[in-house]
Amino acid sequence: MREELEAGAVLLRAFAKPRGAEYLQALEHVARQAPFRHMHTPGGGTMSAAMTSCGALGWVSSPQGYAYTTLDPASQQAWPAMPPSLLDLAQAAARAAGYTHFTPNACLLNRYHNGSHMGLHQDRDEHDTTQPIVSLSLGRSGLFLWGGAERHSRVRTLMLEHGDVLVWGGPARLHYHGIKGLGPHAHPLTGWSRFNITFRHVVAPQ
Ligand code: MD3
Ligand code: FE
């Protein structure tokens, strides 16, 4: 089911559900090489969602700021390669949403437990807003906050379920969004955890 949420933003309900277990295996393969960790923020806080990355570039937060890097600071090694199954899924979803030339080179993996959330924010570290962001939700459901162009724009909520894919581009690419919390039920494949994988095209740091 393809639902246009606003200009540029498409929700593909259950798009990834048939292969959900396969995508979770790919996620575990990444996390064995680059474990999930709780990053620190420039403001002195710690993010309640645990994160890791795969692909040529990975996203890191530290007291010094936010950046995409070619090396995982935890290992000083390159980030794990993007699993082909995940890359295929992201490109198929982008195509289904009307974005034909999506070439993600960064993939951010988020893990939420009880009490994890992600405050309203914009994704603007990619330095390329011509390509969309594709998001894959796996496991326990999450309450997505969907805002607008400004921090104080009206915010709507949407439950994201296992296998749902969001494609966010065009005029909606820089809109505010977040995760308020998790659904009440455990998921047969992930228990009390929710995972989200976002695929991005990032302009390589100089
Ligand atoms: C709307 N992740 O990793 S995914 C993030 O569920 C992030 O973990 C959330 O926000 C999560 O940055 C939400 C859906 C999403 C992702 C990127 C967007 C929605 C977006 C970028 C622009 C607008
Ligand atoms: Fe985001």
UniProtKB/TrEMBL annotation:
Annotated positions binding 2-oxoglutarate: 110-112, 194-200
Keyword list, A-Z: Dioxygenase, Iron, Metal-binding, Oxidoreductase
Gene Ontology, cellular component aspect: cytoplasm
Record-listed Fe cation binding positions: 121, 123, 177
Cofactor: how and how many bound: Binds 1 Fe(2+) ion per subunit.
Residues holding substrate: 59, 66-68, 125, 151
Name by which UniProt lists this protein: Alpha-ketoglutarate-dependent dioxygenase
A biological process from GO: oxidative RNA demethylation
Positions of the Fe2OG dioxygenase domain: 103-203
Keyword Nucleotide-binding in annotation: no
Necessary cofactors: Fe(2+)
SUPFAM superfamilies attached to this UniProt entry: Clavaminate synthase-like
Keyword Signal part of the UniProt annotation: no
InterPro entries xref list: Alkb, AlkB-like, AlkB-like_sf, Oxoglu/Fe-dep_dioxygenase_dom
GO molecular function: broad specificity oxidative DNA demethylase activity; ferrous iron binding; oxidative RNA demethylase activity
Pfam family, one: 2OG-FeII_Oxy_2
Originating organism: Acetobacter okinawensis
